């Protein structure tokens, strides 16, 4: 299986709270829901095509709990598809059985467990949100592709996808799509670690 990140980011790299106002208010973040107005049919189609052949989702604890509570409360078809999907959640504080159907806990030596998971047969595993998990897996070369919806927006504050200390990595641009609202959906595959002096 390949590990694929599918996330919204601003021009200044912020990934925090794109979906709804109360999604993630850590650090006093008040711009939640910033990606919602830019969603159009082009984006929905691109994300749908990316996730058509999916073996499920890989989440950090905060994203797992946030999406579970939001979409189960909101209802609709998206809730049902998430409930039926296989979900792996990385956490040291949660314990099994997990509340959300079809969920498996990953703890302990997370990079080793994810490396084992990647060797199993199946389609891609998709990461949404989960910034700390992305940082951790990126440091171990465990992420194969990034599908980033880049919004023409600068927030100036908020948690960033590639925080300071992210391991230097050279990516390869594999494709782009531009939506009717000006979002550039860019697909990057993992390349090589650049040599640093």
UniProtKB/TrEMBL annotation:
GO terms for molecular function: 5-amino-6-(5-phosphoribosylamino)uracil reductase activity. It comes from the Bacteria. Pfam families: RibD_C. InterPro entries: DHFR-like_dom_sf, RibDG_C, Riboflavin_Biosynth_HTPR. SUPFAM superfamilies: Dihydrofolate reductase-like (SSF53597). GO terms for biological process: riboflavin biosynthetic process. Residues 4-184 form the Bacterial bifunctional deaminase-reductase C-terminal domain. This is Deaminase.
């Amino acid at each position: 299986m390949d590990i694929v990140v599918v996330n919204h980011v601003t021009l200044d790299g912020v990934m925090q709270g794109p979906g709804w106002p109360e999604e993630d208010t850590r650090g006093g973040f008040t711009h939640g829901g910033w990606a919602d107005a830019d969603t159009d049919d082009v984006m929905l189609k691109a994300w749908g095509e990316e996730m058509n052949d999916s073996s499920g989702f890989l989440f950090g604890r905060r994203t797992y709990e946030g999406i579970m509570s939001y979409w189960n409360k909101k209802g609709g078809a998206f809730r049902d598809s998430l409930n039926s999907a296989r979900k792996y959640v990385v956490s040291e504080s949660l314990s099994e059985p997990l509340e959300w159907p079809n969920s498996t806990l990953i703890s302990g030596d997370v990079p080793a467990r994810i490396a084992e998971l990647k060797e199993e047969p199946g389609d891609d595993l998709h990461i949404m949100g989960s910034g700390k998990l992305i940082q951790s897996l990126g440091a171990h070369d465990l992420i194969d592709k990034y599908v980033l919806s880049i919004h023409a927006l600068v927030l100036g504050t908020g948690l960033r996808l590639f925080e300071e200390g992210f391991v230097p990595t050279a990516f390869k641009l594999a494709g782009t799509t531009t939506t009717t609202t000006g979002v550039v959906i860019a697909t990057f595959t993992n390349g090589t670690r650049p040599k640093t002096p």
